Input
Amino acid sequence: MNRRQAAGWISFYSAVVALILLVALVRGATAPAVSSVDIPVSGSIKDDAGATWAISGAVHVTKTEPEPPPVPIPGTIVFGAVTDLQNNALTQSTNTKPLLLTGSGFPTSGPTSNLRLALAGQSMSVTDWSPNRVSFSIPKSLTDKLSVPVTGAFEVFSQVSGNWKSLGKGGQFTILPSNPPAPGAAGPPAVRKVLGPDGKPHDTIAAGDPITLEGENFGQLKGTLFVSGLEVEPLSWTDTKITFRFSSSNRAHRIWAMIVRLDGATSIAGGGSDSLPQMPFVVQAGE
Output
C-alpha cells in the first residue's frame, strides 16, 4: 500500500474512532457497568491504480465502567455520657437546651436522614449527628405518658430498604415521667376480657388472627408480652388494651399470657381451667 492508500485508511478509521467516542459520550450517563454496541461501518477509498475499495460491516465496541466505591460500614459505636445530667436521669424538664450524648463512631448525617436514636426502646428527637456526639431532646409526649421511670440503653438505628437495623447499643440511663404518680397509685396489670378479631369473646380463635386483652394498668408504653411461654411482639399496646397475633395452634390446651410492664410489674392471664377470664384455644383455620 502506498502513501496515498495509507492516508485514506487513516482518515477512514479516524472517522470510525470519532464515531465510537461520540456513542460513548451519549450513552455514558445511562450505561450500566458493562455495555456494548455494534456500530455500522461503510465507505470506500481509491488506490493509485484507480481501483475502488468498498468497506462494509460493523465494529463491536464494549465499554466497562469502574466499580462504584463500596458503602462504608459504620465503625463500632461507643456510648459515653450525657452532658448536664445528674445520676444519669433524663426528664423532659431538662430540655431547656438540647442534651448531648457523647461517644465515638456515630454515623454522620443530618436529623432528616434514615437514622434514629432510641433510649429504652423509645425514639428521641435528634437535632444533629456528628462522629463524637448526638444532640437530642426527649419528646414531651413521651414523658407525659410515663407513669413510672423507665431505664434502658441508648441504641442507634439506620434504615435500610425500609427496615431499621441496629448499629450499636450501650449506656444505662433513666427517663423520668413528667408527673410521677403518688406511690402505690398504679396497681398490677389486670386482664378483664379476651376478645377475638370481631371484638367479641370466643372459645377458639384461628392461628394468626388478632387477639385483644382488655383491662387496666398495662402501662402507656410497651412492655413485654409472653404467650404460652413465647415472647410475642404486640400489634398495639395501651394502658387498657394489648393486641397481638399467635401463630402456634394447640387444640388440647388454652393459651395463657404473661404481661410484664416496663417497671417490672407482672401478671398472668389464663393457665388454669378456673382462671378468669378464660383464654381461648388457638387452632388452625377451619378446625
Remarks:
- Residues 3-27 form the longest helix (25 residues).
